[in-house]
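Sorry to interrupt, but I need a hand with the structure work. Leave the record below and I will have a look:
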Amino acid sequence: MALTTKDIALLAGVSQSTVSRSLNNSRLISQETRERVLKIAREQEFEFNANARGLSTNRTHTIGIIFPDEYLDFGVNLYFGSLHTHLRETLEKRDLDLIIAFSQNRFTGADNIKRLIIRRKVGGLIIVRSRMAPETLEFLHQSGIPLVFLHFHQESTKLEGIDQVYTDHVKGGFLGTEHLIKLRHKKILCISAGEGSEYQQRRRGYRNALETHHIPYDESLILYGDRSFQSGYDLVMQNRGLLDTVTAVFVHTDVMALGVLEALKERNIKVPEDIALVGYDDIELSTYFHPHLTTVHQPREKIAVLACERLFEMIGSKKVKRGKEIQIQPTLVVRESCGGKTADR
């Protein structure tokens, strides 16, 4: 027979309401009493039902994290897996549970976000997606659930009143390009991804840096991959003539940049002696290859912590004004793949 809060109350010598408050970390209960109740609950392997707690207090201690559908793809997961780790650490320090989900059930087409909210599975949401269906955004507004959009900056008018925490990718694109320009590179190949607002913003930063330094923008110097290692490798092999005309390459993901590096090695093109190389994201693998990759660092831990803290504020008080945007600045991590090489051709 499952243990109840009444059983714990008898074991602890307190009222049933005191047990409930202790399990909910209520400030109305002294720390000594709360610790005694929690100790007994742990010893008796009692699991307080999150759904029941949500129904009784109109909230739950579980946070839903909605990741993009391509989360499990190798190149994408290297970044989002790290982001997930930072989110988990921040939430678990607050003794909160988390549910990882995707916006849509790939078999039934059902809207997972609506289901989580309607079934009162979560007390807040962190959404890591570049695009959302208009009807889902409207539902989120009407639900009033505390939520934060993370990583991707959304510009839809339907997002008014919804908090966002994201990296300034325009600045990131500018930093990577300007670093190469300061090394006197003028013919800089840009390898980007075709989809996603973050890549559009990185390309905008690339173009802004060229124009700031009075270097003509050339559309033919932009190639598009699919964010994978193989994509970066193939683009080098398929564009040998173009590679012979440039002195530097700025790649908008580290995984693609490592594919570029491998292909350049096979073509006996030395990095950084013949071509300088810059990546983007600063994933752990960027120091596993040689030369170590110069890259634009996305502050994953910082955006995760700030998103969680903002969510805690909204969960803690209905009076918190929503619609705040927190933009985090990226930084450049200089390693070996650019060297001190300068180029004028």
User: Anything to note?
Assistant: DSSP finds 13 helices and twelve strands in the chain. Residues 74-93 form the longest helix (20 residues).
